[in-house]
Write a structure and sequence with these properties.
The protein is an alpha/beta fold. Helices cover 38% and strands 16% of the residues. A hairpin with a 5-residue loop joins strand 19 and strand 20. Helix 2 packs antiparallel against helix 3 and helix 3 runs parallel beside helix 10. The chain starts with a helix and ends with a strand. Bound molecules: alpha-D-glucopyranose. Alpha-D-glucopyranose binds next to loops.
C-alpha cells in the first residue's frame, strides 16, 4: 500500500465516522432494513470515498461522499417491496448470475414483438429455448430521427413512446421475475443525445450544467486529441469532435462526440455528471432492471496523447458507480461492454493487480472474435494462443459468451498474438474481412464490410450469424449439403458459447437461423448504417417451424435448445471457475477444460475443420475416461486411442 492509499483509507474512515450518526438517523425511513443499509455502506466505504478522492481530489471527497450516499439512500427508500425481496435473495446467493441455469436472449422490442405490452405473451417461447436472462436492446426515449439504434438517449426516465411506457417496462420486469428470469437493459453513459435536457441546459449556459460536456473554440485541442484517437465511424463521422454553432455561448465550438455528431460525450471530470448518472441508474434499477449493460465504457475518460480508451479513471468511475448502485439496490449487477483487446478486457471485471469490485459481467469479445477467426481459417491455434494467455478473471465474476450481437464484428486480434502463430496482424484482419464479406470463392459467408477505412485498409463485418455461416448462400443455391454445413457451423459456435462457462447469449433470430435483412435500406435514418442488416425482424411464421426436424428452423432451434438443456445439468459450467485452453494435439480443434470446485472436470472440443479430426486423448488428462454428455453426432468414435471429432462437430465430455 502506498502512503497515499493508507492516508485515503484513513480519510474514508474519518468521513464515515463523521457522517454515520446522521445517515443512521436518515436511514430510519428504511425501517427494519436500515441496519442492512448501514452495513452495506460500511462495506462499500473503500469503493466510494477513495474513488471520489482519486477522481475529484481529496478536498472534494467528503462532500461528494455525503451527497452520493444520500442519493443511494433515497433510492433504497423508494425501492419497491418486490425488488427488496429479490435483493435479499441475491444477497444470500451472490453468485446467482453464475449458475449454469443462466442463459441469455437479446432482442429489439419492436423487432421481436412490436411493443413492450406484447412481450409477456412471448415468454413461453423464450422459456422453451431455456432463457433466464433477457436483454432488451435500447428502449429509453431516443432523439427523433437518426439515433444510433437507440444509443442516443434523450430521456433516461422515459421509454421510447413507440415501444410503450415505463409502466409497461415495469410490468415486463415483474413478469420476468415471476418466472425467475432477469432483465437487462442498456445504460448509455458515455454520451447523451444532444437533445437531452442536460445538453440543452449546458448549451443555454445554465451554470449547474456548465461542466457536463466539453467544447473547444478552435481546432487546436481537438487536433491534438484526434492525433491519437482511433475513429469509431470513420466513413460518416471522422474524428471525435463536431462543430456546434450554438456552443460556447453562441460563439460556436467543437463538442466532444466520440460516436455520431448527435451523441455528445459527458464530461466525467465534473462530479456533478457522475452523481447525475448515478441518479438515473438507481431510478431505473427501481423499475426492475437487474443488469445494466454499461455501454461503451472504455471511452468515458479522456487523456491527451492516448487512444482515450481504457484509462485508469474509467475503472475507478465504474467501481464507484457500481458500489453506489449496489448500496441502493444490492441485487443489481453491471455488465461491461468493452470491445477492447484481451489485455484490456479483464480489468473491467475488477481484475487489476489488486482486485476491486467493478462489473460482474463482461462480454467475452475475444472469444467471439476468435471463434469466427477459427471458422475462417479452419484452425484454432490463434484462439488457443490468444485466449490461453489471458489473465484469469476474479471468481466473483463471469463472462458473457456470445456468437453474434447487434454490432459489427471488429477484429480485435493483436499483432503480437497473430505473430505468435506466424501470421501478420493486419493481413489476418484483412483476410477475415474478405472472407466474411464473401470475397473468396471458397467462402460461403454473406457479410458486408462496415466502416471500411480507405486510408488504413481497416474494416469490420456486418451480417447475421446464419448468413456469415453460409446458410443464406446454401439456401439460394438450394444445396442441402452446404445447408447442413452452414447449420453445423452455427451450432458449433454456439456449442462453445454455451460451454465456455459464462452466461451464453442467443442473439434474436440465431435460434431459427434468420438471414440478413436488407429492408433497412428503405429507411433513410438507417440506410447508411449496414449494422441494420443483422438486426432482422422476428419471423414468427418461421419460428412456428421450430419443432419440425425437417425444417431449417427445427434443425437449428432443437440443437441450440439442447445445448442449454445439457448445460443446465453441468455444475462444471457454472461461473466462478476458469476455463483453460488445452493443446489436444490437433490445430483444427479448440479444446478447453473447466472444473468447478464442487464438480468433476469438463472438457469441450470444437472442430473447425470440415473433415473429421482426431485428438490425442492422452494429451488431455483423463479424457479417455470421460463420458460424452453432448456431441454433435452421437457417440464419438475412438481410433487407436484417439478421439475423433466429426467435421464442424463438437463434443462435451465430463468426468463421471
Ligand atoms: C456501443 C453500442 C453501439 C453504439 C455505441 C455508441 O458500442 O453497442 O451500437 O454505436 O455504443 O453508443
Amino acid at each position: 500500500m502506498t502512503a497515499s492509499d493508507a492516508a485515503r483509507r484513513r480519510a474514508a474512515e474519518r468521513a464515515w465516522r463523521a457522517l454515520r450518526p446522521q445517515v443512521a438517523e436518515e436511514a430510519r425511513v428504511l425501517g427494519e432494513e436500515s441496519d442492512a443499509f448501514l452495513a452495506r455502506a460500511e462495506l462499500a466505504l473503500l469503493d466510494v470515498h477513495e474513488p471520489l478522492a482519486v477522481l475529484y481530489g481529496d478536498d472534494a471527497a467528503d462532500d461528494l461522499f455525503a451527497r452520493a450516499l444520500r442519493i443511494a439512500l433515497a433510492a433504497a427508500a423508494e425501492r419497491p417491496a418486490a425488488l427488496r425481496r429479490l435483493d435479499r435473495r441475491r444477497e444470500i446467493d451472490p453468485g446467482w448470475f453464475q449458475r449454469s441455469r443462466m442463459q441469455g436472449y437479446i432482442c429489439y422490442v419492436d423487432h421481436f414483438c412490436g411493443t413492450l405490452d406484447r412481450l409477456p405473451e412471448h415468454l413461453d417461447y423464450l422459456a422453451e429455448l431455456g432463457t433466464t436472462y433477457l436483454h432488451l436492446m435500447p428502449l429509453l426515449k431516443p432523439r427523433e430521427g437518426e439515433n444510433d439504434g437507440g444509443y442516443a438517449v434523450a430521456d433516461y426516465r422515459a421509454v421510447d413512446p413507440r415501444l410503450g411506457t415505463m409502466a409497461d417496462l415495469e410490468r415486463v420486469a415483474a413478469a420476468l421475475h415471476e418466472r425467475d428470469m432477469s432483465l437487462c437493459i442498456d445504460l448509455v453513459l458515455n454520451h447523451t443525445a444532444r437533445e437531452h435536457p442536460w445538453a440543452q441546459a449546458w448549451l443555454a449556459g445554465d451554470p449547474e450544467y456548465a461542466g457536463f460536456y466539453s467544447a473547444f473554440p478552435d481546432r487546436q485541442v481537438p487536433d491534438a486529441y484526434d492525433a491519437t484517437i482511433p475513429e469509431v465511424f470513420p466513413d460518416r463521422a471522422p474524428g471525435s469532435f463536431s462543430w456546434v454553432p450554438e456552443a460556447c455561448g453562441g460563439a460556436g465550438g467543437w463538442v466532444w462526440t466520440t460516436f455520431w455528431p448527435y451523441q455528445w460525450d459527458l464530461d466525467y471530470t465534473d462530479p456533478a455528471v457522475t452523481l447525475a448518472m448515478l441518479g438515473e441508474i438507481v431510478w431505473l434499477a427501481n423499475c426492475g432492471v437487474d443488469v445494466f449493460r454499461m455501454d461503451a465504457v472504455p471511452f468515458m475518460w479522456k487523456r491527451l496523447g492516448t487512444t482515450c480508451q481504457n484509462q485508469p479513471e474509467v475503472h475507478t468511475l465504474l467501481q464507484l458507480l457500481h458500489a453506489l448502485t449496489r448500496l441502493a439496490a444490492p441485487g443489481v449487477i453491471f455488465k461491461a461492454e468493452a470491445i477492447v483487446a484481451p489485455d484490456d478486457l479483464v480489468p473491467y471485471l475488477g481484475g487489476h493487480d489488486r482486485y476491486r469490485p467493478e462489473c460482474e459481467l463482461a462480454y467475452h469479445n475475444s472469444l467471439m472474435v476468435l471463434l469466427w477467426s477459427s471458422l475462417a481459417t479452419q484452425d484454432a491455434r490463434l484462439a488457443r494462443h490468444a485466449i490461453g494467455r489471458m489473465r484469469p478473471i476474479p471468481p466473483t465474476t463471469t463472462w458473457v459468451t456470445y456468437v453474434r450481437g447487434h454490432d459489427d464484428i471488429g477484429w480485435a486480434v493483436t499483432d503480437e498474438d497473430a505473430a505468435a502463430i506466424g501470421v501478420g496482424g493486419h493481413s489476418h484482419r484483412r483476410f477475415l474481412n474478405d472472407f466474411f464479406a464473401g470475397h473468396y470463392p471458397a467462402s460461403a459467408a454473406r457479410g458486408a464490410l462496415f466502416q471500411e477505412n480507405a486510408l488504413t485498409g481497416d474494416a469490420r463485418i456486418s451480417g447475421t450469424a446464419a448468413s456469415l455461416c453460409g446458410i443464406e448462400e446454401a439456401l439460394e443455391r438450394g444445396d442441402d449439403e452446404a445447408l447442413e454445413a452452414g447449420i453445423r457451423r452455427l451450432v458449433l459456435l454456439y456449442s462453445v458459447a454455451f460451454a465456455w462457462g459464462g452466461i451464453p447469449l442467443v442473439y434474436m433470430g440465431d435460434e431459427i437461423a434468420l438471414l440478413n435483412d436488407d429492408r433497412y435500406r428503405e429507411d433513410p435514418s438507417r440506410a447508411p448504417d449496414n449494422r441494420w442488416m443483422h438486426r432482422p425482424v422476428m419471423d414468427w411464421a418461421a419460428a412456428g417451424r421450430r419443432t419440425d426436424p425437417t425444417a431449417l428452423e427445427g434443425r437449428v432451434f432443437g440443437r441450440i435448445r439442447r445445448l442449454g438443456e445439457v448445460r443446465r445439468s453441468l455444475l462444471a459450467l457454472r461461473g466462478g471457475a476458469e476455463s483453460a485452453v488445452l493443446d489436444a494435439g490437433n490445430d483444427a480443434v479448440l479444446a478447453w477444460r473447466r472444473r468447478h470446485p464442487r464438480s468433476g472436470a469438463f472438457v469441450g472440443l470444437a472442430n473447425f475443420s470440415p473433415s473429421p479430426q482426431a485428438v490425442d486423448a492422452d494429451a488431455v488428462t483423463g479424457l479417455g475416461a470421460f463420458v460424452p454428455v453432448l456431441t454433435s453426432d452421437g457417440p464419438p468414435e475412438v481410433d487407436g486411442g484417439r478421439l475423433v471429432v466429426p467435421g464442424l462437430g463438437f463434443a462435451w465430455l465430463a468426468e463421471p
